[in-house]
Specification:
Layout: H1 4-13, E1 39-42, E2 45-48, E3 52-56, E4 63-76, E5 79-88, H2 134-139, E6 143-147, E7 170-177, E8 180-187, E9 197-202, E10 207-212, H3 219-227, E11 229-234, H4 239-247, E12 250-256, E13 266-274, E14 283-289, E15 316-323, E16 329-336, E17 347-355, E18 360-369, E19 377-384, H5 387-394, E20 399-404, E21 412-418, E22 423-431, E23 441-448, E24 454-461, E25 469-474, E26 481-486, E27 490-493, H6 501-505, E28 509-514, E29 522-525, E30 527-530, E31 540-544, E32 556-563, E33 569-576, E34 582-588, E35 597-599, E36 603-606, H7 611-619, E37 622-628, E38 634-639, E39 684-686, E40 689-691, E41 696-699, E42 704-709, E43 712-717, E44 729-730, E45 739-740
Antiparallel strand pairs: 1-2, 3-4, 4-5, 6-7, 6-13, 7-8, 8-11, 9-10, 9-12, 12-13, 14-15, 14-21, 15-16, 16-19, 17-18, 17-20, 20-21, 22-23, 22-29, 22-30, 23-24, 24-27, 25-26, 25-28, 28-29, 31-32, 31-38, 32-33, 33-36, 34-35, 34-37, 37-38, 39-40, 41-42, 42-43, 44-45
Organism: Leptosia nina
Protein name: Dorsal-ventral patterning protein Sog
GO biological process, one term: negative regulation of BMP signaling pathway
């Protein structure tokens, strides 16, 4: 029998090809450490830091209730990594309190009635399950950071030497959503080179995660180029690190160096803090010194600050909110440092907002600050403005300045531009009234670029009029008002009205498509979506496929699918107009495909995609369909656009894919029964045949023993027993192992 320790090691580490992005139990090569997530890998399951579970070895062993595993943090030089630790708890069982203890199902220790203290009770963790907790969602939003040379954190290399502080200023925004921390970064104009990585650290300087800032092809690269932002996401943040975020003890750092060896030449960091004003942010300003420091020193951060000197870059960021309507106004929340005299106790701060091209001053206000802080100061300013000034604000023409009286040489200034968050706005477009023949459908995608222009892409299908009128409508309140007209289905609106932004950022701006008269034929309300670092090719329109569904209400949908740097497939599916339950499925038409994969929930990740699925996505031969939960009927379907899969994630041997399939290619699953009953979704597909869950068979052509385990296909090579023959051995046709003659 195989030793249990060997089995546990095989499950916990697994072959490298099984999950290219899994953190192995062994220490990675230095070049791979930066991609290690803050979680453990046990078999095909991701486990959160601090979680405990019983070892599930799968058939034929099952769950080993006397083997307790936990995911523990381990410090490797300057980094914190996750490790799986398993131990036998049989000897830890307490002495039963009665003469006739019993062994209950799912337990390791015999217990008596009333016994509660036992080591075989664990808190099972399932980090892949999406938890909809509204209270936590609200409490984990609106975080920001100001990255300057005044951060108290010292970034260290693997040999624990300090990294010099980079010149310049940056600001970041963070939103926590469904266990993922989305981030966006604005670099100051003085920063001419792009950092190689973004890192999260605790207050002690331990690196919790280092995220390479490599440009992902597709809409992500286009968006970063058009907006001058850095965008990304930290997926599945452990609970312990969420606590750091809430307590204000989580830091973010930008790292410059050589990508080839992950060197750390310079770094710039800042504390992540809660900014309440971010709940209504519409515009952002990044403030840099008007007179840059002549020298900031090139020494390690340990020696960076010399008592009595104020070397290094200082800076600030402003959260700007503009209210349109009958009485337009502005509100500014400004976070800054470094403008004060050394050792000052009470300072007068001057805030000015100007329109340089007209030599016009909009704000000129003085405020007193009693106890200036070295690292973090905040002031707020509000003022009424005119509609023309609001238009200038929306078009990026205003300049904000902050200075302390008596130190004009330390003045901060910066242009007010669109808000720093990395986001796009999308909408499935749904028919407003049912047509006699084909029903129109479509989607809309827009974002704001660095010039304040509105970039839009409208896709429509089955529209009966050749030249439709496309309008943006403010749907706040009972009265809907048209704010813009789009001339084409794809383009750039160079000077959008300032009235667009309040409803846009409050999810109250809609796209209407129709004729010049009458109600719209298509309509959809634009919703904000954070843009992570692997956004694929943009949204795909889900088209109606099943004519058997009653046409009582129109249906519209779209899907986002991408492959991240860790080889995981991330998806989001949005459906409007369908009131029943539904499920989404991913189909990959490639040799070696095991059939459609059920996607859990409307949003999630496939941590363990098959090589065939990745190859199909890369070739543009993958489909996503939506089925009704009650009868399994498919009613929406799309062929996913070609997605750029990282080369390290693709199989070494190319998979043959059918790249000429039409959008109506029949699904590979078993046909829907005539009575519309729900078919078995836990089956496996192999060599053109369907196998029920739990079935095992021999694949003689490849000499593999295969099994269907919870709908997942598992094949292992056949291990032949040693044969000792006096005469030469033979291998009969159709058999995998040699025998004696």
């Amino acid at each position: 029998m195989v030793p249990l320790v060997f089995i546990l090691l095989a499950v916990a580490s697994g072959p490298a090809a099984a999950r290219r992005h899994a953190p192995d139990l062994r220490e990675d090569e230095p070049a791979r450490r930066t991609t290690r997530p803050a979680e453990c890998q046990f078999g095909k399951q991701a486990k959160e830091l601090g979680s405990t579970w019983f070892a599930d070895l799968g058939p034929p062993f099952g769950v080993m209730y006397c083997i307790k595993c936990e995911c523990i943090p381990v410090q490797k030089k300057r980094r914190v990594v996750a490790k799986v630790h398993c131990r036998n708890i049989k000897n830890e069982c307490p002495e039963p309190s009665c003469d006739t203890p019993v062994l209950l199902p799912g337990r390791c220790c015999k217990t008596c009635p009333g016994d509660t203290n036992s080591p075989d009770i664990v808190q099972e963790d399932s980090p892949t399950v999406v938890m909809a907790q509204e209270e936590e969602e609200v409490s984990m939003k609106h975080f920001g950071a100001l990255l300057t040379g005044r951060s108290p954190l010292c970034i260290r290399r693997d040999d624990m030497t300090g990294v010099p502080v980079a010149a310049g200023v940056a600001t970041a925004r963070f939103t926590f959503r469904r266990r993922h921390l989305y981030w966006s970064v604005l670099l100051g104009p003085s920063m001419v080179s792009r950092p190689r990585a973004l890192a999260f650290l605790d207050r002690g300087g331990r690196m919790l995660l280092e995220h390479p800032l490599k440009k992902a092809q597709g809409i992500h690269a286009t968006y970063e180029e058009k907006t001058d932002k850095l965008c990304g996401v930290w997926r599945r943040v452990p609970r312990e690190y969420k606590r750091f975020l809430r307590e204000g003890s989580l830091y973010v750092a930008l790292i410059w160096g050589d990508e080839r060896n992950n060197s750390m030449d310079t770094a710039l960091s800042g504390r992540i803090s809660r900014y309440p004003a971010l709940s209504s942010e519409m515009f952002t300003s990044l403030l840099e010194p008007e007179h840059a420091p002549l020298s900031i020193g090139n020494g390690a951060c340990d020696d960076y600050r010399v008592p009595g000197q104020e070397e290094g870059w200082w800076g600030g960021t402003a959260v700007v909110t503009g209210a349109a309507g009958a009485a337009p106004s502005l509100h500014l929340a400004i976070v800054f440092n470094g403008v004060f005299k050394l050792g000052s106790r009470e300072q007068a701060i001057k805030v000015t907002l100007t329109l340089p091209e007209k030599n016009q001053t909009i704000i000129d206000e003085m405020q007193k600050m009693s106890k200036p802080s070295y690292e973090f100061n905040i002031i707020e300013v509000s003022t009424p403005v005119s509609a023309a000034e609001l238009r200038s604000l929306a078009r990026g023409r205003l300049v904000l300045s902050v200075e302390a009286m008596g130190t004009p040489e330390r003045r901060l200034s910066g242009v007010v531009r669109q808000r720093a968050a990395c986001e796009v706005f999308h909408a499935p477009l749904m028919a407003e009234r049912l047509a006699a023949t084909t029903i129109p459908e479509g989607l809309a995608l827009i974002y704001i670029d660095k010039e304040g222009s509105l970039v839009y892409d409208i896709q429509v299908d089955n529209l009966s009029i050749p030249d439709p009128k496309i309008t943006l409508v403010d749907e706040q309140g009972k009265r809907h008002s048209q704010v813009e007209i789009l001339d084409t289905r794809m383009g750039v609106l160079a000077r959008p009205s300032a009235r667009i932004f309040p409803p846009l950022y409050e999810d109250q701006l809609a796209v209407h498509i129709g004729s010049d008269t009458g109600p719209p034929l298509l309509r959809g309300r634009l919703l904000s979506r954070s843009l992570p670092d692997a956004a694929g090719a943009g949204p795909a329109l889900l088209k109606r496929t099943d004519v058997r569904l009653p046409l009582t209400t129109p249906i519209a949908g779209l899907a986002w699918v991408s492959v991240d740097a860790l080889c995981g497939i991330n998806y989001e599916v949005f459906i409007n107009g369908y009131n029943g339950g539904w499920s989404s499925w991913l189909e990959s038409h490639a040799l070696g495909s095991t059939g459609p994969r059920a996607l859990t929930g409307s949003e999630g990740s496939v941590l363990e995609p098959s090589p065939a699925e990745l190859a199909a996505l890369h070739a543009g031969a993958a489909y996503l369909n939506v089925r009704a939960s009650d009868n399994g009927t498919e009613f929406l379907r799309t062929r996913l656009p070609q997605i750029s899969v990282p080369p390290s994630c693709l199989p070494a041997v190319p998979y043959a894919v059918d790249n000429e399939l039409s959008a109506n290619y029949p699904p590979t699953h078993v046909n829907v029964p005539p009575d519309n009953s729900l078919s078995n979704t836990a089956s496996c597909f192999y060599a053109g045949r369907s196998y029920e869950d739990g079935a095992q068979w021999m694949a003689t052509e490849s000499c593999h023993m295969c099994g269907c385990v919870h709908g997942a296909l598992r094949c292992d090579p056949v291990r032949c027993p040693p044969v000792e023959c006096a005469s030469p051995t033979i291998q009969p046709p159709g058999q995998c192992c040699p025998i004696c003659t």
